[in-house]
Design a protein that fits this description.
Chains A, B: InterPro entries: Ald_DH/histidinol_DH, Ald_DH_C, Ald_DH_N, Aldehyde_DH_dom, Aldehyde_DH_Superfamily, ALDH_KGSADH. Chains A, B: It comes from Flaviaesturariibacter amylovorans. Two copies of one chain form a homodimer. Chain A is α/β, with parallel strands linked by helices and 537 residues long. In chain A, the strands form four sheets. Chain A has a seven-stranded mixed sheet. A six-stranded parallel sheet of chain A has the order 1-6-5-4-7-8, sandwiched between helices. The radius of gyration of chain A is 25 Å and the shape is globular. In chain A, 59% of the residues are buried. Chains A and B meet through α4, α6, β2, β3 and α10 of A and α4, α6, β2, β3 and α10 of B.
Chain lengths: 537, 537
Amino acid sequence: MRAKERVDAISGTGEVCAVPGPNFAQSPRMEPQSQTLSAVAAALEASVAAGAVYRRKTLRERTAFLHAIARELEADADKLIATAARETHLDEARLRLELRRTQWQLFSYGNASLDGIPLGISIDTPSAAGGRSEADGGKLPDWGKVQPKQDLRKMQVPLGPVVVFGASNFPFAYSTAGGDTAAALAAGCPVIVKAHPAHAETSCGVATAVQRAAAACGLPEALFQHLEGGFDLGGALVQHPLTAAVAFTGSLEGGRALFDLAAARPRPIPVFAEMGSANPVFLLPGQLAEQGAELAKLLTASITSSAGQFCTKPGLLIGIEGPELDAFADALAKRISIVPPAEMLHSGIAKAFQHKRADALDIAGVEVAGTLSCPVGRNESIPTLATVPGEIFLAQPALHHEVFGPFALLVRCRDAAQLLDVALALEGQLTGTLMATTEELRELPELLEALQARCGRMVRNGVPTGVEVVTAMHHGGPYPATTDARFTAVGADGIGRFTRPVCFQNWEEELLPEELQRHNPLGVWRRVNGVLSREGF
Amino acid sequence: MRAKERVDAISGTGEVCAVPGPNFAQSPRMEPQSQTLSAVAAALEASVAAGAVYRRKTLRERTAFLHAIARELEADADKLIATAARETHLDEARLRLELRRTQWQLFSYGNASLDGIPLGISIDTPSAAGGRSEADGGKLPDWGKVQPKQDLRKMQVPLGPVVVFGASNFPFAYSTAGGDTAAALAAGCPVIVKAHPAHAETSCGVATAVQRAAAACGLPEALFQHLEGGFDLGGALVQHPLTAAVAFTGSLEGGRALFDLAAARPRPIPVFAEMGSANPVFLLPGQLAEQGAELAKLLTASITSSAGQFCTKPGLLIGIEGPELDAFADALAKRISIVPPAEMLHSGIAKAFQHKRADALDIAGVEVAGTLSCPVGRNESIPTLATVPGEIFLAQPALHHEVFGPFALLVRCRDAAQLLDVALALEGQLTGTLMATTEELRELPELLEALQARCGRMVRNGVPTGVEVVTAMHHGGPYPATTDARFTAVGADGIGRFTRPVCFQNWEEELLPEELQRHNPLGVWRRVNGVLSREGF
């Protein structure tokens, strides 16, 4: 293959990090721009070729590949964790858990397709009476008797090459072999990872593990590619005609830039970007009276652990003025003011935190309630609780956005009506949390509705951090939480971001994919003439 | 409600066509632009309020509403068909079938939610062991033992107000109360239809029927709104902050313009635009030898009925030089050359057809094979078969696009290799058809792969026109067939264009929607700890 040779020539044989970024600038013979473009073209051509091979594999072979990646990560675990700890300043215990979660993602997304649910199979045959349902007791009006005349069989197929941009705050779980990569590979797509420069060595180590797994499974090397470079590389990857979809985890600015590039293409492609979220927590007096001290402890950990560098960190606490809120605020302020500063992921994130924190505190009416008063290192963050009256919050949209890091703003509302106004003023969120008694919520149906209209996940009397990797999880939400509220970044349903349906009309059995054959050799779930079943027909 | 009063004030009480377009320009007091903007704002505010009421209705109440619309259309059928025939020049028999199909869409999409499948419910509970599957015989590696700690219950909820732009070529089935409206209402969303100016009176009549149904079901008037106007109205609807999604059926230019507007919004929203498709038909010699004469007859009808004004009209016929293709081409040319001219939907479409036909015939190497030689009316189309050698087709991307109307281009390929090159050169398509014997396809797996990578529906030895409304149908495809290949415009799965997941974490039973309650009072399909079931737990 010409394409493959070009990739090899650029990367040097045996190197997994196929395209070293900094070298571009040092090349005397070629402009960086055109060298980047030709590297991207070579990568995409190789990706398409590898994808064609991968698409012919069975569901079980796909699953085995994802399991093999998890095993290879296990083999390198200690080394990967040590490297990641050095590059990200996250502690080893947390990173060990994160690596395990990453393996579990690969394992469970790999298993997900085996029962056929992500394939979304529907079959309608000419013999069936159309659209009978319990609703009409089998009696249809005349115009309801539409009889299908064709044999139609539909299933999800892979979109094609997916470009993955990992997150700085999860060097394993949302990065190189993280959720987006696992979902794309489970969907049957080849993957090109643009390595995050803040943990380039970790990324490279993880990529080696993935490529060992591919080799062990007899899959083409280019099924998973790992490129290093800057924004020009990322942009070129998103713009290349052969790229079929993009997955991104990171800042609003970064996600939006990629979304705009993809939408402006001659042939637009889907971008799933998981971006910012302030994750509002509503604190009602009844629940604070019952559980205030415990909630203060819970929220302190949720706001400050891993230096607050979670996309689900609760950044807005919204309560109603009164003795319960006072007591809770005191308890939370005391706890937060003794959490020591922590080194952030990298200097860019530390600088952004310091600026955004300062900007928030500069607004008249915003006051510090709890923070450590001691000198901090250049890349460290000071955990901070600030407070603001409801009316000022409502008047200052700048306060509504995420401050990435250990910062939370307590919004003190005059009454329940103002609390509802605050809920209605919020933008799209990954999560919304209700600390409230059942009675309190029964009396505030508008609050539930306002929150449901803005959030992807609604948490009762708990904290939004801790995103479990199960199918019922939804990690997404209306913009700016993500670029498409209809999809999730976590859980096997996220596979659907990278597939599309194809319908086969009147095909002979032998030319159909096994998944669609009459006797259902794989025993997958299918909707046959409207009825879900794992049997043949 | 202030918003409602404003709509009433603009529309005049009792008028269903709320915002008459041409009047804007005649208003002496206000610029058209600002009047359009305030009408759009009023419509969206009323839509959101009506949507809040509708969202609280049960699944059965939603279903009853869609059924009621179908009944109201039945009551007005004769009048609607006569009006549509006058406005569109389509014949009454065809329009009667189309109206029935429209009713069936409303009926079947309304029924679809009752078994819960479109709700995509997943529930994971803390007690369940994570991710066990047959693949591992219940034995998980250490890192596979991830135990859920939270109670997570996820279901699809409506996105919010959907703006629908209907098609000129289906005044019922893809227009005012057509598939997009039916899917959005089944999803639980309020709908605002921008009436198609080419069948404004039909659209108004259909809107009256929908609004009678809403009144009969005790639903708010603004749940379904019908606005008339030009491009500025359409643009303002897409750009309004309260609009949640857009559905469009029509030209590539129109769909792309709306997609670009939506992507450039401060808060981007999904646009599902179903646009152009050349619907290639591959003709292999073995099948032509067996069935050539019959195929010529079948394809003539498919190319010319309703003046070729179908999005699935086969516009490209691709065969391999030889006696079988010669005989087939002769038979097809003879048949097409005796099909009389027909009046097209409107003068704009007729003009576009005449231009695009002339442009194609102007390319050196493109020759007319069969067409009527007689004078035609100004808005009539002449059915035309043209031919072109494979190498010229490959060199002329202009020939790859849809010519909307009764025109087909027969591409004569030198050999099977060139036929494959043509397949690989095609853009995204709604359909791809294979006229071939089983043996011929067995020998051309690359052709199947190339076609599957480009098409939404793959037809065997039949014609692509005739899109059946069943769940297994897929009416969509890679760009430029649609703006998002992951969704369908036909079949109940199209409901998913207008919903998004919300996950409830650790909620008490009484505050959960019925669909998610433990004992499953609605008996809907749910994935509970990975297993599909209609039981409680």
